[in-house]
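Structure tokens please, single chain.
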Amino acid sequence: MADFLTEIFIKFTETVNHDLEFYGLLFNTNNRSFLIVKIVDILRKYVQQRIEETETLDQKRFKVAVDLCIPGIISVYMNWFTNSYDYSIEELSSLLTDFILNGIQKNWPGN
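Here you go.
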């Protein structure tokens, strides 16, 4: 699972870096809901396909997990664009990968 998640974040980062200004404007428009629905659908299908290559998928659990995770990931990237975080998109992608693969609680300072 780690390989294709890392692959997703690397590809997304490369795509955004190719035209950072365009994607920044795209995520800052008022009509972004259609874009987000399309991105969620594409990612859902991609993740499902990759998981099903190696194991049987519990559809009920998968649907809930995807509905929880993918919009959250997109929201983090949107916040990165709109709030000008003081770190690179590569660092953001690395943090997201670590949180997804290792859990969030483990990564808090003091743990």
